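Supplementary Methods, section 5.1.

A reviewer requested that the exact input to the structure prediction be made available. We therefore reproduce it here, unchanged from the version used in the analyses.
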Amino acid sequence: MTLVGMTSGVFQDPERRDWDGVRPRPIAWSAWYPAAASHPHARSPDGVDGAAGAELFILPSAIHGAAFSPARSSWPVVLLSHGTGGQAEGLAWLGARLASVGYVCLAVSHHGNTGIEPYRAEGFLCWWDRPRDLTVALDLLASDPRFCGRLDLERVFAAGFSLGGYTVLSLAGAITELSLFRTWAEAQPGGPSGPREFPNLFSRFDDLLRSSKVFRTALARQSDSYADPRVRAVAAFAPAPPVRAFRSDSLAAICLPVALMAGRADLEAPHEACAQWLYEQNLVFIVELLGKTVGHYVFLNEATDLGRAEAPELCDDPPGVDRRAIHDRAAAFADAHFRKSLKGDA
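The structure derived from this sequence is encoded token-by-token as follows.
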């Protein structure tokens, strides 16, 4: 397996404003990639994710700022999208594993919906802004001097966790109609409220509609297509309830290979209502269900002792659930899915 390099930065989307309406929308990003073995710096040890996790999670080993591996001139790309309220490094476990077998993995932190900055209700509500973050980040990374010529833009894939699953399905061509989600959510016990990170989220909607021009502008583009023609296949891990906002006809029309993985004990994104429902809209999709005690947050990085003590709902898995083994299985699942989509290529 190849050594892994890692670097990060911040791009800006000049076509959209931040949620204050003052500056271009920021797109913080991190990338993992195949690294040269002869890089002069020592390989970094396992790191601790402290940007937004207060040292709750362990990051996999990577060589920061390493040179690219000379094994090939360019590498296939995987776009990565985190769950609601998360951050790019939340998928470091997947990015590093895929980089070690020959991909450049580009993850972004979605503005207003990420722990690296204050949460914004607008960012939690306007899910459809997320896929454009990945498209813009890919455009800009391809012209970045560190990555120029190193990305095989004929072999681009996408993978996401939770709301990131919604994001990558949007890149595949799924179209959002928010009223569909609200109708579904109102029929659930307790009705629409919000995720654990923003429990009063939907009570903010009408106020934002009155007070925020940026929110109204974003809302008007909810049903645009965010399909990126460069994306060849997508993998979604524990796709979240906002997938119920997708128009069934748009899901049925997706021709890209789509693979879904979810735990049977997921309470945040129950597989019957999310992954299984997606499969029912397009029977070509692949679904793999994990064991009866596997929950939602198993698709986050491995936890520290502090994480297990202070945030057990995110960090502590039931007896018999091995988070590292599930990460290995999930990365192999995505890799096999992406490689299968390339069969027949020269």
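The radius of gyration is 19 Å. These observations are discussed further in the main text.
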